[in-house]
Protein: Aminoglycoside phosphotransferase family protein
Organism: Jatrophihabitans lederbergiae
Amino acid sequence: MTSRIIPAMMGDVKKVEVVVAHHDCATVRVGDVFLKIDADQRRTDVEVQAMAMAPIPTPEVLWRKPPVLALAALSGTALGRLGEPSTASPAAWADAGAAARMLHDAPLPPWPGRSPDELESQLDDACGWLVTSGVLPTTEVMRNRRIAEAALRPWTPVFVHGDLQAAHVFLDKDEITGVIDWTEAGRGDALFDLATLTLGHQEHLNDVLTGYGSDIDLDLDVIRAWWSLRSLRAIRWLVEHRFDPAPEVAVLNSQP
């Protein structure tokens, strides 16, 4: 079946675009089709199941033949990108907040998410590596480590995307057309998704909360803690996979 579908969908395509590629997985775009190649099929299992369960728009699964998952491209443009100013309107950010709320109100997925104890262990490992590697000054690492501690508290689990960065949210005329990259989905803290969405775009937090709803038990210290925790954990992975961690470093430096 796959050998018949690919030519029909890609016969007029003149180039292949490498979207991202590293040791774990790669994504390439061929026309209006994204091909995700992942050596760990557990991540793909989570992605496919999470998209099927999510009450918000997601890419259409065209076919799957391990290790490849074929997804239809979404219309529109990304809400924003870390390290770059967002040109999206306040209404677009509010719509992203409303989509997050719909997801968080949905039934929990059957698989577990990370616990505070697990995250604390990962945070300790990340900070230890940052200090010994010299990527960041020790004082900056420890300062953000203290900020991050506020996130390591019990929470009521909800259905989280797990990597709800602005680059994964697509809109057309301020309306959500879909959310991509669900491999980290599971049970987690609602504030983590909101913090991830506004990472590097702190000026849009109020817009997101307008769409999300005012009845959330919001603690700005926890939002800031997730900004620090996510950035501290991400930098080692980015460096080891030869990506530029400058946007995450900027987030850490900007923390009060």
